[in-house]
Structure formats: structure tokens, C-alpha cells
Specification:
Layout: E1 2-4, H1 8-19, E2 25-27, E3 43-47, H2 50-56, H3 62-81, E4 86-88, E5 96-101, H4 103-114, H5 123-128, E6 135-137, H6 146-152, E7 160-161, H7 170-177, E8 189-195, E9 216-218, E10 224-226, H8 236-243, E11 249-254, H9 256-260, E12 262-263, E13 266-267, H10 268-274, E14 280-281, E15 296-307, E16 318-320, E17 326-332, H11 348-364
Parallel strand pairs: 1-2, 1-6, 6-17, 7-15
Antiparallel strand pairs: 3-5, 4-5, 8-15, 9-10, 9-11, 11-15, 12-13, 14-15, 16-17
Bound molecules: flavin-adenine dinucleotide.
Flavin-adenine dinucleotide is lined by residues 4-10, 27-30, 35-37, 39-44, 122-124, 138-140, 162-164, 166-167, 170, 204-205, 305-306, 334-335, 347-350, 352.
Keywords: FAD, Flavoprotein, Oxidoreductase
Domain FAD-dependent oxidoreductase 2 FAD-binding: 2-105, 135-345
InterPro entries: FAD-dep_OxRdtase_2_FAD-bd, FAD-oxidoreductase_2, FAD/NAD-bd_sf, Succ_DH/fumarate_Rdtase_cat_sf
Length: 369
């Protein structure tokens, strides 16, 4: 078996395959393992009630949603059993349940169970020459491909990348060449509003402008295009809405009440103060008349963390064609497997964990694994 991509889905698939007696080759295109997972907050969660998952992600594939929802708790127990370090026993969100892991420790525990990975190797290129070997695509979607993002998601303005730099759609391209179909949600993404200033991987979490729910939201032309009460708790729809505005930019305007709000244990005022100086704008320096009461504005850009649509799979994580027929020897997991959270937002780590395990189980049942 070949596993392309050593982020969460690929590490899990390789570890599970080894547990089942296979000898997978885990290939990673980047110079490190862990993908976006190692950059993440490490909260692996599901909605508390399945009905909430359906309601919040109405365009998603119900069969895959149920699979992830039903198998997550068992998979979290498995991760714990591998020695992955849990730092919180809950998610900090009353709507969801799950665990928060320390991402580096999680990566190392899985890497050990997977038997290591080969770095700087394009797994899809290697697999192209081995059509008889089962292949699990776990390349993390196409957020890092400016061309594919422009083609499917945001033709007008470039989105900044807030995720792993090597996820350029290799899995999607490979699956389509083999006859795989695409899922729903190809024009959607999970992302964040981020300050319009310098930030890098180390600030992906801490610099997130997660206070759209407490702000007034204007674009550069002074159009108030979204109300605070329309912003989801995850704020993922704010990033999507900003992507459609001129320059994929917006201003989040805060009054004293907004600044006094808290996001988990951090005050909005602290988040604003931590934004790069070039992103903080005084009310009289805005390119439009600020509403009365505005104390400060933060200029934000839409940043993409990962794609939502991708390769179509069945409940065995088998890549399927447009008729729903499995493509021989081909499986997909994690962000590569599209359409789970279409229309909304759900845990990408949960999708990677459950589908990584399912893909390995299906691939191991194929002769030659
Ligand atoms: C800042 C941040 C915070 C986040 N916080 C959370 C959170 O708290 N909870 C949550 O659920 N989700 C969170 N996420 C999202 C989560 O990290 C992703 O959903 C998850 O990592 C997806 O797993 P994956 O294995 O599909 O992709 P990834 O983990 O990104 O791994 C894909 C891997 O494939 C490799 N690859 C690409 N192309 C090839 C190729 N051709 N050959 C071989 N390898 C290849 C990539 O380099 C990468 O290592 C966060 C993400 C970020 C960036």
C-alpha cells in the first residue's frame, strides 16, 4: 500500500494499516510531516447531536457525516491508546464534544505507529507507476494552489494561505485522471479573517481575527456587507464572505462593547492590540465615514486554511466515479475527500482521523495491500 501525504489522514491511514498487518509506504511531499495538523489547534471534535451536524453542514454527504459522527469517539480512544498527548478533555464549545491534542506530540505518536515516512517525495508521482498497489490519497486538498483556488473558489482576488504549503491538489488531479468524480462544495473553503499585515505559520492561530461576531463589517468601498449576527460561531462564513469583496479584504469595526467581549479566554481588546500595527486603523483614517462609537478598525484579509470540496468517496473511503462505482485501488481521506462539510463547517481533524482509519481498513482488504 502507498499513502500519499503525511498529515493527519495519511499518518492515521499508515498507522492503522500497519496495525492490520500491512506494510504501507508513507510518502510526504514536504520537508516535514504533520501537514496542516501540526500547525493546528489540535481540537478534534464532532457536533454533540447529529442533527446539528446536518443543520450546520446541509450540503454535505449525509452518509459520510454519519460515519464520521459515529466513529469519532472510538477513533479518539485509539489515538489516546497510541500515546498521543491530550491537553483538554473537552473542546471549550458547548455545541461540540471532542479532545484537544498537542499537535507535535500527536504527530510523533502517529509517526511511530506508522513506521516512519519518506520526506520530499511526491506520493502521487510514485503511485502513478504502481497501478496495482492500493493508494490512499491524503494530500490535504488544494488550498496552496493559487491556480486551483482561482479556478474553483475565488477568481477575483488572491486568498492568503493559512495552512500547509504543499497541498496543491495532487490528490484531486490524480483521482480525476483515474476517473474519480468530484464532490459537492468545490467552491467552498474553510478559512479565517486574518489581519492585513505580516504573519506566518507561527501566528496562524494567535493572529486570527476571531471577533467578527462583535464587529461591524465593511468592505473597502464602505459597504456594510454582513451583520455580526450572521457570522457563525466558527466565523468560517465571514472568511468566505470577505473573499467575495474587493481585494478579498474588509474592515472589522469595534466599539467599546465589542472590545469588551471575550473569545474563549481572550478579550477582543487583547486580540486587537496584538494585530500588526499596519492592520489597526483609527476611525478617522478609514476610507469611509465610520459609524458613531467606533473606537478602532482592523483591516483583514480572507485566508484559506483548507478546501471543502474534493474527491468523491463512498462510505469505505473508496474513490468513486460519477456513477458511484469505486475506482480500482484508490482511496481518499482527510481534506482530499470532499463534500463532508459542504454548506458549513465541521472538524477537519475529525474527518482526517475517521476517514484515514476507514481508508486503511478498505485498502487492507484489497489483495496486494
Ligand atoms: C492554523 C490551523 C488551525 C486548525 N485548527 C483546527 C482545529 O482545532 N480542529 C480541526 O478540526 N481542524 C483544524 N485545522 C484544520 C486541520 O488541520 C486539517 O483539517 C487537517 O490537518 C486535515 O488533515 P489532512 O491529513 O487531510 O491534511 P494535512 O494535515 O494538511 O496533510 C496533508 C499532507 O499531504 C502532503 N502532501 C501534499 N501533496 C502531496 C503529494 N503529492 N505527495 C505526498 N504528500 C503530499 C502535505 O505536505 C501534508 O503533509 C486547523 C488548521 C490550521 C492551519
Amino acid at each position: 500500500m502507498i499513502v500519499a501525504g503525511a498529515g493527519l489522514a495519511g499518518l492515521v491511514a499508515a498507522a492503522r494499516a500497519r496495525e492490520l498487518g500491512a506494510n504501507p509506504r508513507l510518502l510526504e511531499r514536504g520537508s516535514r510531516v504533520g501537514g496542516s495538523m501540526v500547525l493546528s489547534s489540535g481540537v478534534i471534535w464532532r457536533h454533540r447531536r447529529f442533527e446539528d451536524f446536518r443543520r450546520e453542514c446541509p450540503g454535505g454527504d449525509e452518509v459520510l457525516q454519519r460515519l464520521i459522527w459515529e466513529r469519532l469517539d472510538e477513533a479518539l480512544g485509539w489515538l489516546r491508546g497510541l500515546g498521543a498527548p491530550v491537553v483538554w478533555e473537552e473542546t471549550g464549545n458547548p455545541l461540540t464534544v471532542g479532545l484537544r491534542f498537542e499537535p507535535r506530540g500527536l504527530t510523533l505518536a502517529l509517526l511511530g505507529a506508522a513506521g516512519g515516512a519518506e520526506l520530499n517525495v511526491d506520493g502521487c508521482a510514485i503511485a502513478a507507476g504502481e497501478p496495482d498497489v492500493p493508494l490512499v490519497l491524503a494530500t490535504g486538498g488544494f488550498a496552496a494552489s493559487a491556480d486551483l483556488v482561482a479556478q474553483f473558489i475565488c477568481p477575483a482576488a488572491p486568498l492568503r494561505l493559512r495552512g500547509n504549503p504543499w497541498s496543491i491538489g495532487a490528490g484531486l488531479v490524480f483521482a480525476r485522471e483515474r476517473g474519480g468524480a468530484v464532490s459537492e462544495g468545490l467552491d467552498e473553503f474553510y478559512g479565517r479573517a486574518m489581519p492585513d499585515g505580516p504573519w506566518g505559520e507561527a501566528e496562524f492561530v494567535s493572529a486570527s481575527a476571531l471577533f467578527g461576531r462583535f464587529a461591524r463589517i465593511f468592505d473597502e468601498d464602505g459597504v456594510e456587507f454582513m451583520r455580526a449576527d450572521e457570522v457563525w460561531w466558527s466565523e468560517a462564513n465571514l472568511a468566505q464572505a470577505i473573499a467575495k469583496r474587493p481585494g478579498a479584504r474588509a474592515f472589522l469595526l469595534l466599539d467599546p462593547a465589542g472590545l469588551a467581549e471575550r473569545v474563549r479566554d481572550v478579550a477582543v481588546a487583547e486580540m486587537v492590540a496584538a494585530a500588526p500595527a499596519e492592520a489597526r486603523v483609527a476611525p478617522d483614517a478609514l476610507p469611509f465615514a465610520a459609524p458613531p462609537g467606533t473606537v478602532v478598525a482592523v483591516r483583514v484579509v480572507s485566508a484559506i486554511t483548507h478546501t471543502v470540496g474534493g474527491i468523491r468517496i463512498d462510505s469505505g473511503a473508496r474513490v468513486v466515479d460519477a456513477m458511484g462505482v469505486p475506482v480500482r485501488n484508490l482511496f481518499a481521506a482527510g481534506v482530499d475527500a470532499g463534500g463532508v462539510a459542504a454548506g458549513g463547517y465541521a472538524s477537519g481533524l475529525a474527518q482526517a482521523l475517521v476517514l484515514g482509519r476507514v481508508a486503511a481498513e478498505s485498502a487492507c482488504s484489497v489483495a496486494g495491500a
